[in-house]
Write a structure and sequence with these properties.
The complex is a heterodimer. By secondary structure, chain A is mostly helical. Chain A has eleven helices and two strands. In chain A, strands 1-2 form a two-stranded antiparallel sheet. In chain B, the strands form four sheets. Chain B has a two-stranded antiparallel sheet. In chain B, strands 2-3 form a two-stranded antiparallel ribbon. Chain B is globular and about 95 Å long. Helices cover about 60% and strands about 5% of the residues of chain B. Residues about 540-575 of chain B have low confidence and may be disordered. Chain B has two domains: about 45-290 and about 305-370, Cytochrome Bc1 Complex, Chain C, CATH 1.20.810; about 440-505 and about 525-570, no CATH class.
Chain lengths: ~260, ~575
């Protein structure tokens, strides 16, 4: 304590205090922040459907029509299934924030219970793909090598070789997949949101979808060679070769040249 | 060693060894000559050294890689630590690259050293070439060395491309497939050429061993030989130097090779190696395990070549597909021929031939050892910048999908913008650069004639205000007036005095036309008589006439005043 007191007026003290304060705030936030509850709806009751309809009329009917049959500005939702709702609303894409080339991801507007109620309502309109079980989307049960082969044949041309994302026409894009939850990945394959094609179970089986999820799960975590530079290929490598490599080397050359004169 | 009267045992041993070698090889003469050789000092003279040292780094790391790489397209099944590829069928080339990356100690580091060094190698060659171009270091007697350097750059491209394709991954295979397409687009012989190169239908089973020989034997041997020639020329021609007082085409002002440049250049090797090693240790390059073993069907988003080939990718991406023509039952793939052969052909031919074009236009047969300041050759500088702009636009066009995702733009719009920019950008860059050069030259003229502004305002008894200008010292002035005024060549008339048509008139007229394009717009350096006139005008109000030629009236302000140089900074005190 005495040593600390003696150094109380060190000029670095404010910086240290600030860092400690930031750590404390961050720590408290991590402890106290609400953790997202796990989706736990397997069987939808009639009440759920009713509550879902209310939510639908209040939030979705403006574009999708009061009977969810679609309007000029939005598609019909009859037969899209619970999986489509869970994906679109669960990733925040719907309700759509603004018009644009495609609906953007944003923090989900509804909680898990409301999403499951909405899903139950839309599912009641017509038969469609259901929300997958936890077992179907468990990356630890899939084979990443099979997933790799499937991914690069079916997905990589838009989403990049490891799912870092890529461009589509006219401002649309295939998003990065590393932060997407396994359930949403599965639902996206099953329902084909926006520009994405549908990969139904006849096309890519349920087990194969899990393999793909296992492959994506491997990406973005481990990078054996150091910083991954965005995993977007040789363009970023070339950029860093010029900026870091030639930058440092020319800097050193100027330094060596300046030493004599 | 001469300071001590009794040499240490080490010094004695060294002397004995040197003497032994000298008596048998006569190397003493060479060492003496080289040790005393003078080189001028400037940081930009080290750019070529980056290329040399990154090539040495490439050789060292490349030798390591050949110990473990298997150049074979034979099929095998991978079993190793990378889970996403476990049990996948692949070529031995790819599986040995994986083994090299994940199982050989230091293997991944060496692979990354090799690849980063390759990118730095090409980048430093281009930067070095820019320095040589913009300072006019390619003028007589160095035109041939420019061609050698240009050939080295092409060989560098070849080395990079052949090495990049060796791991047999999807990404480099996509590049090979494009190459195959380009070869097939050659009229008449295209498909035969493709079968010849790939040993049958693409991809065949021969390509990796063939590329291996090209990459580790043929190209490096040629590069080594040409580097030797390149450096031999540097020694023969002596090094160029930047203009300055005391420097002329007949001398070299600088420091001796030993000990100054032995230390600087030797130290710089370790800096280059160190930077490359640092990059390799911290930044992933070419993670082939992400792309997977080659298979002709998949192409992933963001498929691009290394930066030095990116301009070709961009050129292909910009070309509208409708350019394919049917001639009877034959297809003429102009949609491939134009972007993949004509565009790089034009860029490279202009680059390689430029010294000869300029020499023709200048009609100048003298040797040049003092470099130009880029502003003093407006056409050349503007031409170089416009070539670079064209290259850069093609590079950006090759990255159009990444620009689209990272800046939230429409890829279609980007492509259309680049299609127009490819033609408008170099033109605009040419005009703007030339204006800037001429403007800087005018600024130089004004400085020489009127000196620096001092901010000191003096009022005369008559009530008149003037700002006092401080004249340039001799060194500052020399830098701004030393260059030659290059004017368009004047030619003899078409017919001689007796009305007989003169031989060679047509060539001369061509030379005159080109020369006018090069040198019509110019600002000439201040002549001694103009300087004298400016000095005499001091105190008076008369405008100082500047003799300007062509379309460019120089904007030298009138009515400014010079003060007499005071004794200490007398203009001629230091230089004579």
């Amino acid at each position: 304590m005495k040593a600390l007191a003696a150094r109380r007026h060190d000029r670095r003290a404010p910086v240290v205090l600030l860092l400690l304060a930031l750590l404390l705030t961050g720590g408290l936030y991590a402890v106290l922040a609400p953790t997202s509850a796990k989706a736990e709806s397997s069987v939808a009751s009639a009440d759920d459907v009713k509550a879902g309809e209310k939510l639908f009329q209040a939030n979705c009917a403006t574009c999708h029509g009061p009977s969810a049959a679609g309007t000029a500005s939005a598609p019909s939702l009859i037969g899209v299934g619970a999986a489509a709702v869970d994906f679109q609303v669960g990733t925040g894409r719907m309700p759509m924030q603004m018009n644009g080339p495609q609906a953007q991801v944003k923090p989900a507007q509804f909680d898990d219970e409301q999403i499951s109620q909405l899903a139950a309502f839309v599912a009641s309109l017509g038969a469609g793909p259901a929300i997958p079980t936890d077992d179907q989307v468990d990356p630890s049960k899939g084979d990443p090598a099979t997933g790799m082969a499937l991914f690069r044949t079916n997905c990589a041309m838009c989403h990049n070789a490891v799912g870092a994302g890529g461009a589509l026409s006219r401002g649309k894009f295939a998003p990065n997949l590393w932060e997407t939850s396994p359930r949403h990945l599965y639902e996206a394959m099953l329902t084909g949101p926006q520009s994405m094609p549908v990969f139904n179970d006849a096309n890519i089986t349920s087990e194969e979808k899990r393999d793909i999820i296992a492959f994506i799960d491997e990406q973005g975590n481990v990078s054996p060679g150091g910083l991954d530079l965005g995993s977007i290929g040789p363009v970023s490598e070339g950029l860093w070769a010029w900026v870091v490599g030639l930058g440092l080397l020319i800097g050193a050359a100027v330094w060596i040249g300046a030493k004599s004169s | 060693m001469t300071t001590t009267s009794t040499p240490t045992p080490t010094a004695r041993a060294a002397a004995a060894t040197a003497d032994y070698l000298d008596q048998r090889t006569g190397i003493g003469v060479a060492v003496k000559t080289f040790a005393r050789k003078i080189f001028p000092d400037h940081w930009s003279f080290l750019l070529g050294e980056i290329a040399l040292y990154s090539f040495v780094t490439l050789l060292i790391s490349g030798v390591f890689l050949t110990m473990f790489f298997v150049p074979s397209m034979a099929e095998t099944t991978y079993h190793g630590p990378w889970a996403s590829l476990n049990g996948v069928e692949m070529s031995q080339a790819f599986s040995s690259t994986l083994r090299l990356s994940f199982e050989v100690r230091g293997g991944l580091l060496m692979r990354q050293v090799h690849h980063w060094a390759a990118l730095i190698f090409m980048a430093s060659i281009v930067t070095h070439m820019m320095r040589v171009f913009f300072t006019g270091a390619f003028r007589k007697p160095r035109e041939l060395n420019w061609v050698v350097g240009f050939t080295l750059m092409i060989l560098g491209l070849l080395a990079g491309f052949s090495g990049y394709s060796l791991p047999d991954d999807v990404l480099s295979g996509n590049g090979l497939r494009i190459t195959d397409g380009v070869v097939k687009a050659i009229p008449i012989i295209g498909s035969y050429m493709s079968y010849f190169i790939f040993g049958g239908e693409f991809p065949g089973n021969d390509l990796i061993p063939r590329l291996f020989t090209v990459h580790i034997l043929l190209v490096p041997a040629l590069i080594l030989a040409l580097i030797g020639l390149h450096l031999l020329f540097v020694v023969l021609h002596k090094h160029t130097q930047y203009p300055g007082s005391g420097r002329s085409d007949k001398n070299v002002v600088g420091f001796p090779l030993f000990p100054i440049y032995v230390a600087k250049a030797g130290g710089y090797f370790f800096v280059v190696f160190g930077v490359i090693a640092l990059m390799a240790a911290t930044m992933t390059i070419n993670p082939v395990w992400n792309y997977g073993p080659y298979d002709p069907s998949p192409v992933s988003a963001g498929a691009q070549p290394d930066w030095y080939m990116l301009f070709l990718e961009g050129s292909l991406r910009l070309m509208p597909g409708q350019a394919e023509v049917m001639l009877g039952q034959y297809t003429l793939s102009l949609n491939v021929i134009i972007p993949a052969m004509i565009v790089p052909g034009v860029l490279f031919t202009l680059l390689a031939a430029y010294p000869f074009i300029e020499a023709f236009a200048t009609g100048d047969n003298r040797e040049h050892h003092v470099l130009d300041r880029p502003r003093n050759r407006p056409f050349r500088t503007a031409f170089g910048v416009s070539l670079l702009v064209a290259f850069f636009i093609l590079v950006l066009a090759g990255s159009n999908d990444l620009i689209a995702t990272h800046f939230h733009l429409s890829i279609n719009d980007i492509t259309w913008v680049f299609r127009f920019l490819l033609f408008l950008g170099p033109w605009a860059a040419f005009v703007i650069t030339k204006r800037i050069c001429l403007g800087l030259q005018r600024k130089d003229r004004e400085l020489v004639l009127h000196g620096h502004e001092t901010g000191r305002i003096v009022r005369f008894a008559s009530g008149e205000y003037i700002e006092v200008h401080k004249p340039l010292d001799a060194h500052e002035r020399w830098l701004r007036v030393q260059h030659d005024a290059v004017r368009p060549v004047e030619i003899e008339p078409a017919e001689d005095s007796r009305g007989v048509r003169r031989k060679g008139y047509r060539t001369d007229r061509l030379r005159q036309r080109i020369s006018q394009v090069f040198y019509e717009d110019r600002v000439e350096p201040v002549t001694p008589s103009e300087l004298e006139a400016a000095h005499h005008a001091h105190g008076g109000h008369d405008e100082i006439g500047s003799h300007d030629h062509g379309h460019e009236p120089a904007q030298v302000g009138g009515g400014q005043h010079l003060v007499e140089p005071d004794g200490e900074t007398g203009p001629d005190a230091r230089n004579h």
